[in-house]
Amino acid sequence: MTQQSFDIAVIGGDGIGPEVVAEGLKVIDAVGGDVTVRTTEYDLGATRWHRTGETLPDSVLSELRGHDGILLGAIGDPGVPSGVLERGVLLPLRFALDHYVNLRPAKLFPGVTSPLADHVTSKGLDFVVVREGTEGPYTGNGGALRVGTPAEVATEVSVNTRFGIERVVRDAFARAQARPRQHLTLVHKHNVLTHAGHLWRRTVEEVGAEFPDVETAYQHVDAATIFLATDPARFDVIVTDNLFGDIITDIAAAVAGGIGLAASGNINPTRESPSMFEPVHGSAPDIAGQGKADPTAAILSASMLLAHLGLGAQAERVETAVAADLAERGTASRATSQIGDAIAARL
Ligand SMILES: NC(=O)c1ccc[n+]([C@@H]2O[C@H](COP(=O)([O-])OP(=O)(O)OC[C@H]3O[C@@H](n4cnc5c(N)ncnc54)[C@H](O)[C@@H]3O)[C@@H](O)[C@H]2O)c1
Ligand SMILES: CC(C)[C@H](C(=O)O)[C@@H](O)C(=O)O
Ligand SMILES: [Mg+2]
């Protein structure tokens, strides 16, 4: 078999980011075989900002574009004003690299304890959220007037384009079509957000005509949170906007065994720019530096990266090793590096 080699950019970032990414890299190394993964580390986040005042320099962005994929830990730090790094590093990466599919699987692995009752989880919990990644209220379309006065006004306009919705909806339908259940739920709030909501609803109806095998459903986002907590088995693929997707994927992570297990991919399906894989969680300042963050989400994100590179067999091996580790782990608390070592050892 021919040796395959890939160039991966690594952004540890802030807080527990570098701690969990190190374990993801350990696992990628352990996959070995005829795959060579060269990694280049990029220093982005609070440390760089304190040192230089920079968030995401153009030169770094253009170097990142030259890689086959990006593995990221987390961005955000309590020592930096809120939003500076999130809006200065993380979102510019997702926007500039046109990561319009933010893919967030939620699956309850055997042996993992969910906060949901057994009779709820016995029906299964295995769905994927396709979160739009480049639009909605995230675009920065807004502003503030008369700041600090009693007459202050602030706006954050949600931007929804037919182009942006259609491409992510088509991707979600294709994913639903390829899954055994062939079911897609649109989550929005078209009873109140009538302009954006109806555009999403019509787009789902129209694109859906191209996927006659896929059954569709609709849920308002508030009701969707009920069913995520009481009957997650009803979901197969969920498609939703950027902000609703952010919120429901933290709930999805919680019911699937915890935020330490939830992986994600910021994907550019056209492959015109590298996709970026990262845990759903953030920099967890409350536990940073203590070696107790769960690196499983970062390891599963690394596995999604391998799959994206066309290394499906290797990705499956990682997922199998993670499943075995989770089944054995029980409620024992283990250090970040011990979990990474145990999963790598299974490979
Ligand atoms: N993609 C990202 O880079 C990303 C995602 C979410 C939040 N953030 C940023 O991270 C910072 C902290 O945000 P937050 O506190 O709202 O969310 P968070 O996800 O960092 O933490 C929420 C809770 O989950 C726990 N937690 C998170 N990851 C864990 C892990 N791997 N193992 C065990 N426990 C874990 C934390 O200890 C905390 O109690 C903020 O600056 C935020 O903007 C970044
Ligand atoms: C940090 C923040 C910008 C980010 C988001 O809202 O997308 C995070 O919460 C996530 O879920 O990746
Ligand atoms: Mg989030």
From TrEMBL:
Residues 7-343 form the Isopropylmalate dehydrogenase-like domain. GO terms for biological process: L-leucine biosynthetic process. Its main location: cytoplasm. It catalyses: (2R,3S)-3-isopropylmalate + NAD(+) = 4-methyl-2-oxopentanoate + CO2 + NADH. InterPro entries: ICDH/IPMDH, IsoCit/isopropylmalate_DH_CS, IsoPropMal-DH-like_dom, LeuB_actb. Substrate binds at residues 94, 104, 131, 222. One of its GO terms (cellular component) is cytoplasm. Pathway: Amino-acid biosynthesis; L-leucine biosynthesis; L-leucine from 3-methyl-2-oxobutanoate: step 3/4. The keyword Nuclease does not apply. Binds 1 Mg(2+) or Mn(2+) ion per subunit. The record marks 138, 189 as: Important for catalysis. Pfam families: Iso_dh. Its EC number is 1.1.1.85. Homodimer. Belongs to the isocitrate and isopropylmalate dehydrogenases family. LeuB type 2 subfamily. Catalyzes the oxidation of 3-carboxy-2-hydroxy-4-methylpentanoate (3-isopropylmalate) to 3-carboxy-4-methyl-2-oxopentanoate. The product decarboxylates to 4-methyl-2 oxopentanoate. This is 3-isopropylmalate dehydrogenase. It comes from Janibacter alkaliphilus.
